[in-house]
Write a structure and sequence with these properties.
The protein has 316 residues and is α/β, with parallel strands linked by helices. The protein folds into two domains: 181 residues, Rossmann fold (3-Layer(aba) Sandwich), CATH 3.40.50.720; 123 residues, FAD/NAD(P)-binding domain. 28% of the residues lie in helices and 21% in strands. The protein has a five-stranded parallel beta sheet with strand order 3-2-1-4-15. Strands 6-13-7-8-9 form a five-stranded parallel beta sheet. Strands 10-11-12 form a three-stranded antiparallel beta sheet, with no helix packed on it. Strand 8, helix 7 and strand 9 form a beta-alpha-beta unit. The protein is globular and about 65 Å long. It starts with 52 loop residues before the first strand and ends with a helix. The relative contact order is 0.18.
């Protein structure tokens, strides 16, 4: 602010994962988007004594942070992103009004990389042949994750859409929607659709919503989201498995084998993500300095991907 450049301030995304949420994990407070908070001296960046040519595959949050940090340390960095836009899952995640802070984070990363003059190549997928051509000293694979799709009857029906498809407008939700999966993303998808006037039902196989995450969702965020779901009259069916997607909607089975049907125009699949690490597996043994970061290594959240990227980029 003193320099008159407020846009350079890294935005808070309101996740509480790095700060207040860590109190419940008995860990020191820090920041999800700034890993140096609370350990500024230990985690300060030092110029590399041997600048390297670094190729980063993937322009999601992990790839962007790795590029920023590696460039700051003096490495010659190039990001290759197979789509035509940077951001990865930050793009669809920032669509709802209540998640706009993720859009601010993405814009901040873009401005930082532009200021650092980091080379970015869009619309190019990294392959082993491209690696041979570019001859980088270091390859950082940040290829992200993709939706998990359950193998159940009816999964290929036209009414079925992933949460990502719904956010990006690749598929339009009808008046009544069943969201399969009551994790944080499923609940946010349900809230977003309910705010548009849709009749939404969440189906979750566990007894409660948002309790299966590897990293516990901070209490304040979880309670707020539960209250908003209730306020917007989202119906919640826990302890139910989805058995089949039908022309009318979904067929459910409970833990005690009770059967139930719920009518729906649209069935949203939100049962989590799985790592996309095909490139990494193809490069193992062929690249001497190879790293796997972010969702491609283990699906977590913005904090997990950011800290992953910072740790690797500050040490190469």
């Amino acid at each position: 602010m003193e320099e008159g450049k407020p846009e350079r301030i890294r935005p808070c995304i309101g996740c509480h994962d790095g700060c207040l949420g860590r109190i419940f994990l008995a860990r020191p407070l820090s920041c999800a988007v700034n890993p140096t908070v609370g350990r500024e001296n230990l985690y300060r960046l030092e110029p590399s004594d041997k600048p390297k040519k670094v190729l980063i595959a993937g322009g999601g949050v992990a790839g962007l942070e790795a590029a920023r940090v590696a460039t700051l340390r003096g490495h010659k960095v190039t990001i290759f992103e197979k789509s035509n836009a940077l951001g990865g899952h930050l793009i669809e995640a920032s669509i709802p009004d209540f998640k706009n802070d993720l859009g601010r984070l993405l814009n901040w990363h873009k401005m930082e990389l532009e200021d650092l003059k980091t080379k970015i190549k869009l619309g190019i997928e990294v392959t082993p042949d491209l690696i041979k051509k570019e001859k980088p000293d270091v390859v950082i694979v940040a290829t992200g994750s993709e939706s998990r799709i359950p193998d159940i009857p009816g999964i290929k029906e036209k009414k079925v859409a992933t949460d990502i498809d719904l956010f990006l407008g690749k598929k339009r939700a009808g008046k009544s929607v069943v969201i399969v999966g009551g994790g944080m993303i499923g609940c946010e998808t349900a809230l977003w659709l309910a705010q548009q006037g849709k009749h939404v039902t969440i189906v979750e196989q566990l007894p409660e919503l948002m309790v299966a995450s590897k990293t516990p969702i901070p209490h304040a965020n979880r309670i707020m989201l539960l209250d908003l779901l209730k306020f917007h009259k989202v119906e919640v069916l826990t302890n139910y498995f989805i058995a089949e997607i039908t022309n009318e909607g979904v067929a459910l089975v409970s833990h005690d084998f009770e059967r139930r049907r719920v009518e729906a125009d649209t069935v949203g699949i939100s049962i989590g993500l799985r790592p996309n690490n095909k490139l990494y597996r193809a490069l193992v043994g062929k690249v001497s300095s190879l790293y796997l970061i972010g969702d491609a290594r283990e699906v977590r959240n913005v904090m997990g991907s950011t800290w992953d990227a910072y740790e690797v980029a500050r040490t190469i």
